[in-house]
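Internal tracking record. Fields below are filled automatically when a chain is submitted to the structure queue. Please do not edit lines marked as system-generated. If the sequence contains nonstandard residues, flag them in the REMARKS field before resubmitting.
Queue: standard
Priority: normal
Entity type: single polypeptide chain
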Amino acid sequence: MEDTRSHVSFFGLREQPFAPTADPVYFYATREHKECLFRLWSSVDERHGIAVILGSYGTGKTTLLRKLLTGMTADQGRYTAAVLGSPIPSWTSFALLEAVVGQFGLRPEKNSFAAYMESLNRYLLAKRGRINTLIIDDAQNLNKRGQLELLRLVQNLETQQHKLLNLVLFAQLEWVEVLQAAPNFEQRINMTYTLREIQLEETRRFVDFRLRQAGASGDPLFDEGSVAIIHAYAQGNPRVIVTVCRNALLVASQIGRRRVTPEIVLHTIQKTTVPDADRRARAVAAAREVMRLNAPLLAGDTVERERPAEPTWPAVDSQEVLPRLSTVRERRASEMLLRAAKAKQPPISKA
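SYSTEM-GENERATED OUTPUT FOLLOWS
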């Protein structure tokens, strides 16, 4: 089994910078994340009611949830928070109510809808001096009209000044259709924010930030070209970026390379990702562009300031492009990756 600690220490890191968990320590706040958090905190603190955060898989919704919860936990005299993660789509309205009441630590004496609602209402009234918030992750699982009606009911209690319960709902983009089919709930949403994929420059900062948090110093472990290829493959999706970076570091350490290059990234994509022709084509196109821009330097030419919109692929000898390798195995692997970058499609494993 791979010694993870040895693999990480090879790069002078304290810990894995690209772990597949939503650790708040590694939360890189993009411009969108900062704006979303600002609006979210404003909605919560003003007790305006329902806030919905939408985004595709891997755009940072769960990390934002944990960031919000961390802030609330740090000020327990002001906030009371309950978290309901991944509700079950088949839940009845009463099953959902049981889960909500349970997350607030309540145990009604009678097992009835009326008793549970009364218990929750009494609790919220008793806590009306605090900001009470129910946070639901994977809210797209709530796709029944009765479930949304239940959420409307539990959030309906209010004073003349504000709501007694905030709802913060994190969901996939497909939940929009469910909301539109339930106007009685949708019209009560105070704030909606949609997270988008990050841009290339944000990807560079995102990768560098995680490495610094893990103890990296000195020259970047990922060169500019490798980051561009990762971004193209991931289409700016933070979760995919993290996965490719994690596997690329492992590949680099296995062959004794202390910097991740485009060849290593292409090899990582080929060997460690689910075959996807479109994604791999984007990665190869990015690799070709990187090599086009770098080829004059590698050949000893002068880089031109103005480049044609659609230049032809430079005829460069592979021995001039490939770095000097210490083993035949590394040379063969890099030659294969160079051929992949020149081809329209990456090589597909026969395995």
